[in-house]
Design a protein that fits this description.
Chain A: Belongs to the SPCS3 family. The complex is a heterodimer of chains A (about 230) and B (about 100). With about 230 residues, chain A is α+β, with helices and mostly antiparallel strands. Chain A contains 3 helices and 7 strands; from the N terminus they run αββββαβββα. By secondary structure, chain B is mainly alpha-helical. Chain B has a two-stranded antiparallel ribbon with strand order 1-2. The chains are: A alpha+beta (about 230), B mainly alpha (about 100).
């Protein structure tokens, strides 16, 4: 500590130690706050299966399921001081037939809910960002953003199966998942079991439903051509 | 003249402090940074504001740097008192560059 450079080095060295310890304690503080997420409603509102191509130049025809759904969930308890953003996604899941893969799971809709502390990182335009920042009302955390109420929400991703066939598939369920991304610490997903103060996400799955059969477009066309 | 200036500049840059000052500097760093860390953690947790914690931590660390790095006068209150050179009589009549030194 006899010269300025040595003092600079030693002070910075101890600063890194303090920063590491504080960051560890911040990540551990997650376990002190209760997580009580609930799903009050998750149901499909409209189902449709159509034929289409994976991309414009493809000659392959596949069946795509188009699912609309309603969701009523309260994830506000996931927002603490260490929450950077919460990724929410809805999947459609169905068992597979025979000796194929065990389960089929495909995301049909997702959403990134930023905490006010990470609004500046959201991938949105300047006007929308201003509105988002304003919605927090200057508060450092805004749990009300965790309240999701979707009515007849359109899918974000149309889904199919590697075989290209998905029509008339039975025993399909919609499931809500979340992924909490903290400022410091590990990523955590929705739990099947309660762990300490973190409760399991109950009622995350909708009732089983069957996808409809493919619409018979060809017949309709034939009728039209015969009529003219 | 230039050498004198250079020496002065080197002294300021090196910023040497005495032994007691070094002990004090080390103590100040440990206490100040620990306090800053604890304050940032608790303020952040109880006000549920992670940005506040980060800014408190960085600001406090900057203040600690300011407190400890420059050779403030209070680090130099106990300069080492060297003993006079013993057993050798001070030399007389040294001639350097044809000038007399006494």
């Amino acid at each position: 500590m006899y010269s300025s450079v040595v003092r600079l080095q030693n002070t910075f060295g101890f600063f890194t130690t303090v920063a590491f310890v504080v960051a560890s304690l911040v990540s551990l503080s997650d376990f002190l706050s209760a997580r009580t997420p609930t799903v009050d409603l998750l149901k499909t509102t409209s189902l449709q299966v159509v034929k289409g191509r994976p991309h414009y130049y493809s000659s392959k025809k596949e069946e795509y399921a188009i699912i609309k759904f309603s969701l009523d969930a309260d994830l506000s308890s996931l927002f603490t001081w260490n929450t950077k953003q919460v990724f929410v996604y809805v999947t459609a899941e169905w068992p597979s037939l025979g000796s194929q893969n065990n389960t089929n799971q495909a995301v049909i809709w997702d959403k990134i809910i930023t905490a006010p502390s990470s609004d500046h990182l959201a991938n949105i335009g300047p006007i929308e960002r201003k509105r988002l920042k304003k919605s927090a009302g200057g508060k450092p955390i805004d749990p009300s953003r965790g309240k999701l109420q979707l009515k007849n929400q359109r899918y974000k991703y149309q889904i199919t199966h590697p075989s290209g066939r998905i029509a008339s598939q039975e025993d399909v369920v919609l499931k809500l998942h979340y992924n909490v991304q903290p400022w410091v610490g590990i990523l955590t997903w929705n739990q099947e079991q309660t762990w300490g103060k973190w409760q399991a996400l109950k009622g995350a799955a909708s009732k089983k439903f069957a996808l409809p059969a493919l619409k018979k477009k060809d017949e309709g066309k034939k009728n039209k051509t015969t009529r003219t | 003249m230039a050498e004198q200036l250079l020496d002065q500049a080197r002294d300021i840059f090196e910023g040497q402090i005495d032994f007691e000052g070094q002990k004090l500097a080390e103590l100040l760093v440990n206490i100040a940074l620990s306090l800053v860390g604890a304050l940032a953690l608790f303020a952040g947790y109880f006000l549920q504001d992670i940005k506040l914690a980060v800014y408190l931590g960085l600001g406090g660390t900057a203040a600690t740097f300011l407190l400890v790095v420059p050779p403030w006068p209070f680090f130099n209150k106990n300069p080492v008192k060297w003993l006079p050179v013993a057993g050798v009589a001070p030399p007389t009549n040294i001639v350097v560059d044809e000038k007399m030194f006494r």
